[in-house]
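Late entry, written up from scratch paper. The run itself happened at the end of the previous shift, but nothing got recorded in the book at the time, so transcribing now.
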Amino acid sequence: MTIPFDTAAALGDIPHGFFGRRGGVSTGELAALNCGLGSGDDPALIAENRRRVAEATLPGAALAGLYQVHGNRCVIIDEDSDLAARPEADALATNRPGILLGILTADCVPVLFADREAGVIGAAHAGWKGAIAGVTDATLDAMESLGARRKDIAAAIGPCIGRASYEVDEGFVQRFLSDDPANERFFAAGRAGHAMFDIAAYVAARLAAAGVTRIAIGGQDTYADAESWFSYRRACHKNENSYGRQLSVIGLR
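Output as recorded:
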């Protein structure tokens, strides 16, 4: 069956996709395309959902993933890598064809990278902790070590929680202002003692500051659109027992 997914024009014809919650086999609160290995879902259903994502993006490709820890480590997938392993990291990079790099999110920012000329790709999971710690910078460094040139790298920011849905407290704001006072521009006024954080814009600014000149932002709000996207924060607010994860992937033919 055909399952829906979003793409980014900035990545051109590089096989990639931002997959949401439609087109899978999971049920209940995790319906339907839940790809999260830590979600408590039936492993057989997760495996089928992940297979569908891979076949929709790059048929026959192997899927490489991570045990994501909200850090800034980037793993390079080479000919010696065990693709069944899930190293503790939050980004991947490779120049190997036939491999899909996969990132799980449920409000955090998925970022897909490609240098088409060099044949090097990357994928990063940027929650706020990883974003401020430089996970996207680490991904760019890893891609350059494989032959990519920063001026040729395009980056696409996928579905994540939007500013209108991302309320944070004053302590959160101060963490970002302490890192760089210019980060004030990513916060809008909220109720007393709180602000609204634009994490997609923050990640885009980090990419631009690092020298990336082609940056796409999808603009989808995972919290606000329950039919299309999983959301950790929404699941918490609704007192749901678990929450699904969507999968973003990129590969080389």
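The chain has a mean pLDDT of 97.
(Scratch paper discarded after transcription.)
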